[in-house]
């Protein structure tokens, strides 16, 4: 089931400048963005600054109207049925702002809960639940004023608010931006848990490649207002290279490269290059098809063991999502 | 209707928390009318005696009248500021996108949201002068203050309509200054809070007549002048205020819907 559908979204910002605001500038933020997000998956919208990520998120959150194109969240049209959409989504747009400074974490959550029509025991229950799930109570965030929060605590509170009414869809704009590694990891783990254990659909935007690679089931890469690639992490990596380099380091004095090359070619049917060091350390490098790396490493190790070599290291030099991103957005090619 | 109550509850809650977490605010709410009255009496004593002021205005107790007028002024400032300034404040704090992405319609939030805070502020401000009224005029004086409060509440409804339009405009024109803050002194000027409106030029009198505050001041003056106030005049004033409520809110609702659409089209929520 599709939780989010975006179809040919186009948005141009008209910016008026000058004292009398007569100078008009047009910025094309989206030029036909289309993608689907399946229910229960973590979907990443990855792109450089100014690519159109936040504009897309704002349209899906009903904060912005597209010039053309349509979008649906759980079947509700974001333009025609904004109220319905607002009932089923939880939104986090900025982790730094968006709360009353002189209210505690608990008071802020209660305010936004009341605003959504939650009340009484159910609201108390939900506040306590979300404070626990994001780990804020442990940090005293329920009693501290928002102005006393660290950035990590602010991010947790922002996600707590998004979860408060138990929405089916979470839309989070750069949820770990500026966080320390520990807080970022906590948030990442929480998002994966929410999607894979509680069945929530999570859409995040980010330009943190590592993060997207870690938690997203599928990713859309957006650049200059267009989706330039979409798929699972593996599918995206295949766009860059159909083969992956694998390196195995083994040690056995007296072993010549010719013997190794022949044995592996005969046994595994793969061409390899072998470098034998002065100290007897042999480095074997092979290009194997994407998805075959683990099998190749396993079988090559078997061959080397038959030859009496001791394995020191074996790894595939997988292209990272960063490589894919840089290549697709016009940056350096993966090497 | 469900969300009207939800919005009012939410804003009442945040207002109470705000007061609890900023205790000086409660103190100033209680003493603001007295401070303004003392300032005006001090300034006025340089220009003439209390007796002269009483003769010019035509009220029986000028001190109480100035206190009541000061309360009306404080309440009006708080209404206009609460309603028109709230949207801008939400933008500054960064809460505006979350309010807009909540289920209640923006128009519901803009109108219903500030009602609890403005009602409490008006109540506290006018009740704060209750002891003075009872001191000067006994129980009748106290009852008169409660009547002024009633008129203030009646005037609050059209004032909210006007303030919503001002607040919406300040968002649309991407104006970061609180336009309402500049307009409030003008509203007070033409309303003749501390002096008869008749001393103003004709144009200003006419503008003043279009604003609800003039009628609250008028009612206050009548209550301060007569021991048994003419009921027909007071009910006419109430009728005018009800008519204004319908008129201004009739304009503010489509106006705010336009503002909401414009904001969603231009995406100015987070700037």
Plain-language structure description:
The complex is a heterodimer of chains A (335) and B (271). Chain A has 335 residues and is an alpha/beta fold. Chain A is 35% helix and 30% strand. Chain A has 2 domains: 238 residues, 3-Layer(aba) Sandwich (Rossmann fold), CATH 3.40.50.300; 75 residues, ACT domain (Alpha-Beta Plaits), CATH 3.30.70.260. Chain A has a 6-stranded mixed β-sheet with strand order 6-7-8-3-9-10, sandwiched between helices. In chain A, α3 crosses α4 and α8 crosses α11. Chain A starts with a strand and ends in a 7-residue tail after the last helix. By secondary structure, chain B is mainly alpha-helical. Helices cover 83% and strands 0% of the residues of chain B. In chain B, α8 packs parallel to α12.
Q: Please state roughly what percent of the residues of chain B sit in beta strands, choosing from under 5%, 5-15%, 15-25%, 25-35%, 35-45% or over 45%.
A: under 5%
Terminus-to-terminus distance of chain A:
38 Å
* Spatial order of strands in the largest sheet of chain A: 6-7-8-3-9-10
Oligomer: heterodimer
What is the number of strand segments of chain A?
14
H/E element string of chain B? HHHHHHHHHHHH
Summarize the largest interface: chains and residue counts: A-B, 36 and 32 residues
Return residue spans of chain B where pLDDT drops below 50 for at least 5 consecutive residues: none
First and last CA, distance of chain B: 31 Å
Largest sheet of chain A: 6 strands, mixed
Short description:
Chain A is built from 11 helices and 14 strands. By secondary structure, chain A is α/β, with parallel strands linked by helices.
List the helices and strands and how they pair.
The complex is a heterodimer of chains A (335) and B (271).
Chain A: E1 2-17, E2 23-38, E3 42-46, H1 53-60, E4 68-73, E5 76-77, H2 82-88, E6 89-92, H3 105-115, H4 120-133, H5 151-163, E7 169-173, H6 181-196, E8 201-206, H7 209-215, E9 218-223, E10 226-231, H8 233-240, E11 243-251, H9 257-268, E12 272-276, E13 281-289, H10 293-306, E14 310-316, H11 321-328
Chain B: H1 2-21, H2 23-47, H3 50-57, H4 62-93, H5 96-100, H6 106-112, H7 115-128, H8 130-172, H9 179-191, H10 202-209, H11 213-225, H12 231-266
Helix pairs in contact in B: 1-2, 2-4, 2-7, 4-7, 4-8, 4-9, 4-11, 7-8, 8-11, 8-12, 9-10, 9-11, 11-12
